[in-house]
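Lab manual, section 2.4: Encoding a predicted structure.

Procedure: take the sequence of the chain (363 residues), apply the prediction step described in section 2.3, and record the output as structure tokens. A sample record is shown.
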Amino acid sequence: MVGGESQKKRVVVVGGGVGGAFLAKKMQFDADVVLIDPKEYFEIPWACLRSMVEPSFAERALIKHTDYFTNGRVVTSHAIGITESEVLTEDGQTIKYDYLALATGHADPTPRSRKDRLEQFRQENDKIKSSSSVLIIGGGRMGVELAGEIAADYPEKNVTLIHDGPRLLEYIGPKASNKALKWLKSKRVEVLLEQSVDLDSITEGERVFTTSAGKSITADCLFVCVGSRPLGSTWLQETFLKESLDKSGRLMVDETLRVKGRSNIFAIGDITDIREIKLGYLAQKHAAVVAKNLKLLMEGGRESKLATYKAASTMVVVALGRKQAVAQLPFMTIGGRLPGMFKSKDLFVGWMRKGIGLDPRAV
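Recorded output:
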């Protein structure tokens, strides 16, 4: 007993992306929460492309963990191992837990400090501003949105988008692909489908690129938006949870979002094997379910009362510049200013900031 009250249970959250940040925020007054993340900040991930054309936008999209997570402990380090009661960190700490939530998402090579990440965006912006022509390789969400951001903010620049598939945005339906292609072409973006560039043959400072179809493209600036991002689960392969990883390296979870076979270990976000498109707003939903279940378990509630999660129907909004977008909803696909009103102006940054208790507008 401490101060007449039972000591709070320790919840360790590994990963400070969307899911981990929201879970730490939700649990901070109900448990002794430790957030482990290699960065000192939470980054709203879908805002990064706007930040490349407008670096000041990143001031609101990069949020120090200590700004929203005010009643817990932040450990700025990589988790490198776990036992059934402890997490081991790269900086030599051993952190005990009663409950563990794994939310390590993807292993993106981003800087540790917020200051350095802001500087990265300024450098990318200088690169764009000093170029008269831009080549983007990859026609997924990142490639399409980056082409849209540059075409909208720098209409005088020649933008070329190369994609090796038969259509853009192949992870969603063809109607959305066609609407995005039509919009890009209306902004003078040259789109080359079913072509690729040998990335291994590119040398630093190269200005002329040859596609697989033999077409030569001159560009001052190159952005590569292809290639699979490595999952942030490699470190788990050397732990007792290695048998809980599927063939893709994702953690297998049950309907309560506990790692299968584990009563006190949860997983949320991109690292899970839930069959749905991996999107930030779904990671938030995962966090809400896990927070509810953690509170129930810590209060001694019955397992039969645990909240469950069902995979979501596909709902994707792809920004096209600052005013338009294409949205694929469960029963229809729409493009233009209407979906743009929901996402493209602010990219949900104000809404996200409000969701973690911060002023939507303030830096």
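Check your result against the sample. The chain has two domains: 10-38+77-108+229-310, 114-228+315-352.
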